[in-house]
Amino acid sequence: MGRVSECPATITGMRAAFLASAVLASLLTPAAPAEAASTGSPGAAGPAGTASTAGTTVRACSGRVSDFDGDGRADLAVAAPYTRVGGHARAGSVTVLYGTRAGKQLSQDSPGVPGEAETGDGFGSALAAGDFDGDGCADLAVGVSEEDRSRVGADGDGIVQLFHGSPDGLRPGRTIDAGDLGRKRGPARFGAALAAGDLDGDGDDELVIGAPGLRGGAVGVYGLKGRRPYMVTQETGWVGQNERETDQFGAVLATGDFDGDGRAEIAAGAPADTILKNGQGSVTVLDVRRRKAALLTQDSPWITGRAEAWDSFGGALATGDFNADGRDDLAIGVPGEGLTDNQRAMEYGDGTVDVVYGSRGGLRTATSEAWSQRALKGEPRYFDRFGAALAAGDLNGDGDDELVIGVPGENAVQVLAGTRSGGLTKNHNLLFTGKGGHFGGALATVAGRGLVVAAPGDGRLTLLRTSVRKGSYPGVRPSTAKTLATAREGTLFGYALAR
Questions:
Q1: Which residues 6+ apart lie within 8 Å of 344 measured at CB?
Q2: What sign does the dihedral 47-53-56-58 (CA atoms) show?
Q3: Angstrom distance (rounded) from CA 230 to CA 222
Q4: What is the pLDDT of residues 127-174, one digit of tens each?
Q5: SUPFAM superfamilies attached here (predicted)?
Q6: What are the strands of the beta sheet with 206-210, ordered from one edge?
Q7: Average pLDDT of the chain?
Q8: For burial by CB atoms within 10 Å, which of 145, 279, 490, 491 has the most?
Q9: 408, 434 in Cβ contact below 8 A?
Q10: What is the mean pLDDT of residues 381-389?
Q11: What is the pLDDT of residues 453-473, one digit of tens each?
Q12: How many other C-beta atoms are found inside a 10 Å radius of the C-beta of residue 341?
């Protein structure tokens, strides 16, 4: 399955303040880094995958997607882009909760990290984990989208900070900016969205970088075999779309192998795209190897609904195999969709989610479906923002993925089970309501282990454990809900999660 940028929303102009989409192998609670996370008790299990060399125990990287330190256990990266660092407000930090040892806070003031923390940088505006160097240890990319503002009130130029996994944990690597991808540096908010996926089928991951402020937006591709890093825009010849300065192309990113050929494609959300209606939104599927693009909107054939102003189609994305056919499917959040009577323009929206299934020929809209609380547990209301965050994973252990939908206006999450007989089903759908703070604003899953739900407004993470139960059951056990980590309010701890 492809990986998703867990933080598609902007920091300097949020309409739906906590859009989003981390993995934990066990309930663990590392020591609290300064101003960041405090948690419960650590897990008791020891490290796995060890070898002895000259009397010294050395861990090898496990190859797990989220194993940053090679101990065989999944780790979790949690962004808090408004953390004060070195006296600088909103400089930002990322806390890494390691599976068998204490957590660690990363910032631009951490040893070995290039640059320094500055006011308003937003370190952690997006996160993505993947094995970028092919060594079997997961690496972490951190977006710093507001770095280097040319003037007060301007968007940041933005950079991406890389950290490389190792048996000792994450180590600082290089920084990347628009200049490294052949573009002039400027207020592009480079790094506002991130995703990782194997785009060329060579076994390691490439990094996909959103720059939604570069005119109408751009998507950068870094690490592709045989190709220098570069950017794709709506006006790139093989994409062939009209570009408007406010579209925010690349503000949301995900990757998935939608045609099952062993190479991932990119899904690029442009939630403010104006095609026929202001801010209706769009998603473009980019096959960078074949140089092909496909545009999806609510006006696409067989996609339920119609494009309307401020729907924000593409405001969140997640990929998963909901019908276990070996091809990834794409869930598209439409958090601004209005279902309530007499809803006014620019109100948040009840929200819906469209799901397009993969096939041998790629995503096939003829088998798409739409979900809202009209057909599920709960009641749609104009402020719910159903679909503002999405995640996918095999939560019940039966081999197909479940879909988790954030409903932060309701402080809730909704879970739909996948099935081999037709994909997602409303049977036994689960609605779980948490405490305030935009609970459901960011999500992360691990198959057969648990669901992590962030409430960035309160700076709190909640873990819900799962159990094996085949069929149309979501697998999540609400009775197991437990606070995983907390941080000071106002830091936006949990704004982005990475696995």
A1: none
A2: negative
A3: 7
A4: 999 999 998 889 999 999 999 988 777 899 999 999 999 998 999 999
A5: Integrin alpha N-terminal domain (SSF69318)
A6: 193-197, 206-210, 218-222, 230-233
A7: 87
A8: 145
A9: no
A10: 95
A11: 999 999 999 999 999 988 899
A12: 6
Other CB atoms closer than 10 Å to residue 489's CB: what's the count? Answer: 14
In single-letter form, the type of residue at position 26 comes to S
Pull the structure tokens for residue 375.
């057909």
CA torsion 442-443-444-447 (nearest 10°) is -170
Structure tokens belonging to residue 460: 């709190």
Phi/psi at 189 (nearest 5 deg)? 55, 45
pLDDT exceeds 60 at position 352: yes
Contact 460, 454 (CB under 8 A): yes
Task: List the beta strands (DSSP E) in 165-274.
Answer: 171-176, 193-197, 206-210, 218-222, 230-233, 252-256, 265-270
Please give the structure tokens belonging to residue 185.
């540096």
Q: What is the pLDDT of residue 490?
A: 95
Token look-up 């503000």 returns 251
What is the reported pLDDT for 58?
43
Query: Phi/psi at 282 (nearest 5 deg)?
Result: -155, 165
Please give the span between the terminal C-alpha atoms of the chain, in angstroms, as a whole number.
12
In one letter, which amino acid is 385?
R
Length of the chain: 499
Helix (H/G/I), strand (E/B), else coil: 180: helix
- Percentages helix, strand, coil for the chain (3-state, rounded to 5) are 0, 35, 65
Kindly write down the DSSP assignment for every residue of 370-431, as one continuous string. Answer: EE-TTSSSS---TT--TTSEEEEE-SSSSSS-EEEEEEGGGTEEEEEE--TTTS-EEEEEEE
- Three-class secondary structure of residue 480 per DSSP: helix
| Coil, helix or strand at residue 179 | helix
**Helix, strand or coil, per DSSP, at residue 301:** coil
Among 10-14, 22-26, 401-405, the range scoring the smallest mean pLDDT is 22-26
The residue type found at 299 is D
Q: What is the pLDDT of residue 62?
A: 54
Distance, in Å, from the CA atom of 55 to the CA atom of 68, rounded to the nearest integer, reads 24
- Buried b / exposed e across 184-207, counting CB within 10 Å, b at 16+? eebbbbbbbbbbbbbbbeeebbbb
* CB atoms inside a 10 Å sphere around CB 369: 17
In 335-374, where do the E strands start and end?
352-357, 364-371
